[in-house]
Amino acid sequence: MSEQILVKHTADLKDAPEEFRNACAKLVISHAVNELYGAQVFDEPAIALAPNPYAKWLTCRVAMEEYGHHVRFRELGEEMGIPAEKMTPSQKRPLSIFEFPLRTWEEFCVIKLLADLAEILQVEDLLHCTFQPLRNLARMTMPEERFHAQFGEDFCTELVQTSEGRKNVQDAINRYYPMLPAFFGGSQSKNNEIFRKWGIKQRTNDEMRVDFLERCRTLVEDKLKLTLPPIAEAA
Amino acid sequence: MSQAAPPYKAMGNAASDRLADLRSRLRMASWFAAVGEKLLAGERWDARAYLAGLGFADAGVDEVSSWQEAAAITKSPDWSRAWWDREEAERTRLLEICGRDLPEHELMAALSRIMELASATTHGAAAIAASRAGVADQALIRVAAGAAAQAAYQAALPVLAGKAASESEHPFAVKFRLFEAGRWPLGIAGGSFHVF
Predict the structure, then answer these.
(1) CA of A207 to nearest chain B CA: how many angstroms apart?
(2) B70: nearest CA in chain A?
(3) What pTM was computed for the model?
(4) What angle do CA A71, A151, B135 make, to 5 degrees?
(5) Nearest CA in chain A to B188
(6) Could you give the ipTM of this predicted complex?
(7) What's the whole-number mean pLDDT along residues A148-159?
(8) Which of B84, B123, B139 has its CB closest to that of A58?
């Protein structure tokens, strides 16, 4: 299905087909906006919720790394000629997973556990991207995304050792997990079709969603010994 | 005839200009280079000045000798919420003062640049210091870098608030000095201020 094209440098993008250029721009804008918004609505407020200085400073570092991801995507976008204002949440609506109202430390740990896993899958899909500057950026970002998901897993593992913590983590999973399958987009997504046509992304939204749900099952049911709530069928 | 406004950069940025010295010190600091060593007299003096400035003059000053001990203190159940809250209250107060004479976007941009610089500088230094001690705990290294970046952000506030005469004595400036000297002030737990 993929067209044969490889863009090694941002400067070469001008010679690429318009559909390829637009598709790359869409992805870069989306990552720039959502990395920033995630840091603003989840990571920064979580510093106050963290239970001790260790967790507060670690969360502070995570917030900085997420903000750093925004900066990297924004800089790539600027190199591509995308106006900076298009890469902020004020110009483009962030994803619905950020609409979850964060109130507790347990909720934040579940967000890191599950939403950052979803982010890992999205970044993984760019590791062989035909627009190489985006591929390189994905490879740079991946270790930190993995660490953020590990942060969620480690703290959730610690929290479920007490009955109250276990109850709170399960409650957060019950409310947050159903929001996540939609993060991967619709089954008939035209954007995804174009991404795959040009080899920018590799997998369909449904393939990624199935993979995500299975990885969640392993994490939540096998490792944490908690349960996943039912979810509505994805669009 | 009205003149067109000069480009943004040519107009200068008062907030950013005020932080030039701090940015330079941030790059030059001996981040985490002295952790685990005996506290020098001047460092003890700084630790006491920091405590007095925040209203915790009665707290003792304790040395911390290892990364493992440092991790345990930062997770200690008897860490002082009052200490953290006092710092937060002071941060909020200074931000409010800064907002009186600096445009919000300029203030936030200047603070973001400090955080970016701190982020880029402190993580590698913490990793090197930890590895010298045989510690490869990625989470703990990030905790240390997070603490250092927070200190850099805090140190920017009295400078931006325009307290030139007293800024070097502000508790946030004194805390930054401890980091600058290669220390990691871990905070108050069990009634003592612990410095690694």
Answers:
(1) 32
(2) A54
(3) 0.90
(4) 95
(5) A53
(6) 0.89
(7) 97
(8) B139
